[in-house]
Amino acid sequence: MNKISRVNRVLAGAFLFTIIFNGCALKENVFFEVSYNPELGSQGFDGRLLLMITKDTLKEPRFQINDTNETGILIGKNVQKWVPGQEKFFSSSTLAYPIKILNELENGEYFVQALLHKYDTFNLSSGHTVLLPMDQGEGQHWNSSPKNIYSKPVKIKFNKQDRKPIKIELTEEIPPISPVEDSEYIKHVKIKSELLSEFWGRPMYLQANVLVPEDFNKESKTRYPLMVFHGHFPKTIGGFRTSPPTAPEKDTIFNSRFGITGYKYIQEKEAYDFYTQWVSKDFPRFIVIEIQHQNPYYDDSYAVNSANLGPYGDAITYELIPQIEKMFNGIGEGWGRFLYGGSTGGWEALAVQVFYPDQYNGCFAACPDPIDFRAYTVVDLYKDDNAYYKKGRFKETLRPGIRDGKGHIKTQLIDMNRREYILGDKGRSGDQWDIWQAVYSPAGDDGYPKPIWDKLTGDIDHDVANYWKENYDLRYIMERDWDKIGKDLEGKINIYCGDMDNYYLNNAVVLTEQFLETTQDPYYAGEVDYGNNAEHCWNGDQENPNYLSRLRYNTIYLDKIKDRLKNTAPKNHNLKNWGL
After folding, report:
1. Using CA atoms, how far apart are residues 62 and 116, in angstroms rounded to an integer?
2. What average pLDDT score do residues 292-321 get?
3. Number of independent structural domains in the chain
4. What confidence tens digit (pLDDT) does each residue in 57-66 have?
């Protein structure tokens, strides 16, 4: 037995030393001991070792960690060069979510599961070396990422007074994901990005899922507008179905998000209806692409250049899109490209239009992520000192993170960020607040994103906030640079948001509209609209409920796009079925 192993076994002996938590003295006790089967590998793994604790196994514990009241408990620690036979320990003082430390776990019966989220080594062009999870085709989900190893759920009796730790062994590996095959209308194009490969120090790729127009003929003179449907990682083109619905029209499965039953049938019918429109004789012919730009920090890059993610904006606009247009007879010029999407995709649609104003001919940004950092959901990054608390002289009030359509608070910012911190330090959770930070922040001295605030305390770093302002606050950038980019943005900016957005995204939209309505020489000449009492993700449809309109992104803006093309397309446009 080597020296390290001897020390580890001694540490597992139970009470080690006294710690102070909330003013109380606690005996440090090792509760869990984790190892992995040598058959899973012997080279030594880097990553984040996670332990999930739940009261049931209706789902595996790894699928029960979330922001709701029903979340399981999560603890985690970093491991480096972890080899078989080396135990990793979780003790009473280990930080946890949603409880503060593991010692707060009550005695009782639970199900536990451990998982190692593996990290790769990246030698960045900046000279930094960082350890990050490489996406394995799943879109950056730690609990389903191929090559990650995990244990089967085990039922335990937990007792803090026990002197022997509970032993858990990782025995399973998540299998690889098979790529989606091409079909008659849907193609999958993958290119190596030279720009991204140089930044990351290894081959990096971009993929586009392409919806090909009816009667596409490479030899034809017909040219097609390109509709870039931005959003989260799309495995393939969704919402397009060449056969009638097979789901029962009147099933009893209740959809809690929309408060209806039969939603699977509705989705399948909408997808089939879109197909029938797509192939109909008079339907406008265009190309739809959904981009796969997952990266070591998230399921997509936010489609802009970033100090921590690299030049994704340039790679998409100058490498991927020209390749797609060349393959499928796209127009290949800015007047023939349009952007739309919701939430993350809404921010991306607006950001890409702002950062590449002459390369695209209009954006339709639905429920966009915060586009004015004075309303970074409910935080003013420039005036507030703390993200989690609104502080007075004698009282502190927690800031909300998510609300329902009636305004009832579902979770707090402090809890959402704590979950991310336990999933991965240094911004490596692969989740929402960490990707905003990774995209918008400068790189720190260690090569990881410089925190906008302390994840545990919420204290804001205003130097980082000012960097965000100058580089990614879309309202501020438009206002600052309107005399330079306003002419290229005239008539191109359209923003939609429900006024009861679950993530308070409407607050930033209101602030941005206030600026846009003051623009002169030129006036912005676009549209900002709100859904009354509408939640996330309302996209401008005043006639239909959100559960329908969210399925119609590829058709909902076509009339507005046609109007735009009438004003901007050259006479020899070679477009088909646009009636120009």
Report:
1. 11
2. 98
3. 3
4. 899 999 999 9
3-state DSSP percent of the chain in helix, strand and coil, to 5: 25, 25, 45
Quote the CA–CA distance of 446 and 55 in Å, as a whole number. 39
Q: Are residues 242 and 334 in the same domain?
A: yes
Q: What is the pLDDT of residues 380-412, one digit of tens each?
A: 999 999 999 999 999 999 999 999 999 999 999
CA separation, residue 179 to residues 138, 147, 188, 244 (Å) = 10, 16, 9, 25
pLDDT at 9 over 50: no
Burial class of 571 by CB neighbour count within 10 A (0 to 12, 13 to 18, 19+): exposed
Residues 207 and 353 in one domain: yes
C-alpha–C-alpha distance, residues 557 and 562, integer Å: 9
Q: Are residues 453 and 341 in the same domain?
A: no
Burial class (CB in 10 A: 0-12, 13-18, 19+), 158: middle
Do 67 and 191 have their domain in common? no
Q: Are strands 30-36 and 88-91 parallel, antiparallel or unpaired?
A: antiparallel
Q: Which two tokens stand for residue 560?
A: 């507005």
**How would you classify residue 407: left for phi > 0, otherwise alpha for psi between -120 and 50, otherwise beta?**
left
Please report where in the chains the tokens 């209308």 appear, as a residue: 185
Q: Which two structure tokens, joined as six digits, stand for 543?
A: 């006639």
- Given a contact cutoff of 8 angstroms between Cβ atoms, the answer to whether 366 and 342 are in contact is yes
pTM above 0.85, yes or no: yes
Query: In which domain, by residue range, is 161 found?
Result: 3-173
Q: What is the spatial distance between Cα 470 and Cα 263, in angstroms, rounded to a whole number?
A: 43
**Residue 169 burial (CB < 10 Å; 0-12/13-18/19+)?**
middle
- H-run or E-run covering 339: strand 337-342
In whole angstroms, give the CA distance from residue 525 to residue 271.
33
Look up tokens 């029960």; give the residue.
64
- Do 9 and 143 sit in the same domain of this protein? yes
Locate the DSSP E strands across 55-140.
73-82, 88-91, 96-97, 108-118, 120-123, 129-132
Which structure tokens are listed for 519? 């623009």
